[in-house]
Amino acid sequence: QVPLVESGGGLVQAGGSLRLSCVGSRRTFSGVSTGWFRRAPGKEREFVAALRWSGGSALYSDSVKGRFTVSIDNAKKTVYLQMNNLKPEDTAVYYCATSDRYYSSNSFYAGASEYNTWGQGTQVTVSS
Which of 15, 28, 41, 74 has the lowest tally of Cβ within 10 angstroms? Predict the structure, then answer.
């Protein structure tokens, strides 16, 4: 059983929107925080957004702040990433992940090494 499964990627024109979904199991969603990361061709993996399962303020990278929104539906064991006003530089494979490590500061959840479970990714392509 794949622990996390992303969906919702696709091809969209600049300025358009997509909503990514990440479905998990009760075990994978029993951690502390969930995060979204992306990897563009030829580039390092990049933090996008993070949100604790308990709620509270989300953490976003500067490159997506104001355009992307992360949310959780605990009943459906699903994490969403709503992406608006997409730009060609948002083109990447997007991954969701979960962390079972507790930190008092949200800033720690920007580090990929803090996550222990990952999905296989979904491709997002934004044309100009």
Answer: 41
Measured CA to CA, the distance from residue 25 to residue 23 in angstroms comes to: 7
* Mean pLDDT score of the chain: 93
Q: pLDDT category, 31, cuts 50, 70, 90?
A: confident
Contacts of 31 (CB under 8 A, 6+ apart): 53, 98, 99, 100, 101, 116, 117
Amino acid at 100: D
Reading the block at residue 60, the tokens are 């976003």
**Amino acid at site 36:** W
